[in-house]
Amino acid sequence: MSSPSTGSRVSNWIDHRLPIISFAREHLIEYPAPRNLNYWWNFGSLAGIALVLQIVTGIVLAMAYTAHTSLAFDSVERIMRDVNFGWLLRYAHANGASMFFIIVYIHIFRGLYYGSYKAPREILWWLGVIILLLMMATAFMGYVLPWGQMSFWGATVITNLFSAIPLVGESIVTWLWGGFSVDNPTLNRFFSLHYLLPFVIVGVVVLHLAALHTHGSNNPLGIDKKTKKDVIPFHPYYTIKDLFGLGVFLTFFAVFLFFAPNFFGEPDNYIPANPLVTPAHIVPEWYFLPFYAILRSVPSKLGGVLLMFAAIFVLFLLPWLDTSRVRSAKFRPVFKVFYLLLMIDILALGWAGGQPAEGVAVVIGQIATAWYFLHFLVLLPLLGWFERPRPLPESIASAVLGDRAMEKA
Ligand code: HEM
User: Fold this and answer.
1) φ, ψ of residue 27 in degrees (nearest 5)
2) Are 372 and 342 in contact (CB under 8 A)?
3) Are 90 and 256 contacting, i.e. CB atoms less than 8 angstroms apart?
4) Distance 44 CA to ligand 1 centre (A)
5) Catalytic residues, which ones?
6) Does residue 403 have a pLDDT over 80?
7) Tens-digit pLDDT profile for residues 132-186
8) Which atom of ligand 1 lies nearest, measured to the CA of 219?
9) How far does residue 213's CA lie from ligand 1's centre (Å)?
10) 107 in contact with ligand 1, CB cutoff 6 A
11) For the chain, which has fewer Cβ within 10 Å, the N-terminal or C-terminal residue?
12) What domains appear along the chain, each with residue ranges and CATH number?
């Protein structure tokens, strides 16, 4: 490993005045990462790449998009047909949003499994939850921009939820719309905010990484690093692993992009927005479906709205709701079972959210909603007290290297 003084005279000159080179060396090259990180630790860097891809494709798309109710739909059609590689840009951006959510949901479930939200990483976790909320707001407003039927009706249904707030609800909705229905002022402000929020996300990601590098990464064993033998430098070990992961991700992305670009889309959004014709079945994008099911599981509008927001806000409390002293599920045999049940539960919510709000889908949605809150508010605190975890290894190095860890120790 080189020290700052071993660079060229030019880089030393720059670094002495603005230490960006030593900063990059410290955080990207020498950063001591646990030696046992598995492939689930690839998803943070992948999320960063997905964010950059969304920003780059979005900026170029905005050059040919028109945020006006009478032109938005046609401007998107023109991008698809007449703008050079416009179809590629638009499909990359639309499918990129789905890829981003797949990556971030895996990233969150990794954290839930290995207890990465536990002390001393609570603020790192909170920043993640804030990123998730910002991503949801950004995606919701982006979906309105093509001004198709689902754009218009999705925006109408979701913004109307605020009318459930007692006394001030109606005024809030009028304020959000900038008028008395979803119309041109709404489209305009959504475009403006859809352009702005990703940069706010970048800012929160920087804080997320600053928090990460304060105590270092958690790892599959969930135990703290103790000696030099427990860690390896980020470069070349994890730069090469992240690069390999990126290759796999781009291949996965390309399959959708080139062979099924409308897989995640809704056919109704190829019909221009018409305030006089309500689609038979208004559904949000797939990544909102579990929350949509929670919203619809309560007959009262206000109750549904509160419960939907509570489903995210409970995540802020997670570091304290999970009372176990052991981080990783690897050593928590009972937690492992409940973790699996939670995954099934969220898939069930997703399914229920995609069905018309009637019959068995509603009942399944209600049961799954109840289980979701039961998991976080009751089972997790109890598990920490009653579960008997398996013994933890001595150190990361001893678990990974066995006897070799002790050699020359
Ligand atoms: C734009 C979205 C995001 C980006 C770019 C991002 C980036 C990263 C990166 C690069 C890492 C280190 C590598 C890794 O551990 O995989 C990381 C770690 C982490 N992230 Fe995120 N993240 C994002 C969203 C989230 C969200 C939504 C949450 C939770 C709600 C979250 C929670 C965490 C936690 C707890 C860690 C520490 C993991 C550990 O050390 O075990 N992140 N993030």
Assistant:
1) -95, -20
2) yes
3) no
4) 5
5) 213, 217, 241-242, 285
6) no
7) 999 999 999 999 999 999 999 999 999 999 999 999 999 999 999 999 999 999 9
8) 41
9) 11
10) yes
11) N
12) 35-220+235-282 (1.20.810.10), 286-409 (no CATH)
